[in-house]
């Protein structure tokens, strides 16, 4: 019998989105981009909190 461990499709809490977003913003700033906009589902509280930490401010709602 041969077995394999499968990784779960989604593993919350790894912080991959945080890393990608902060690296992207840093690169944009290095290129002289001063403003950035993002969208998130209103129910995605962890990402909304992170966006506030990055300095994003609400500008519109759907």
TrEMBL record:
It comes from the Bacteria. This is Uncharacterized protein. The lineage of its organism: Bacteria, Bacillati, Actinomycetota, Actinomycetes, Micromonosporales.
């Amino acid at each position: 019998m041969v077995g394999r461990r499968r990784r779960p499709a989604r593993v919350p809490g790894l912080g991959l989105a945080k890393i990608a977003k902060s690296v992207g913003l840093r690169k944009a700033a290095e290129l002289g981009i001063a403003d950035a906009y993002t969208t998130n589902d209103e129910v995605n509280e962890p990402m909304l909190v992170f966006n506030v930490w990055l300095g994003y401010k609400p500008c519109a709602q759907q």
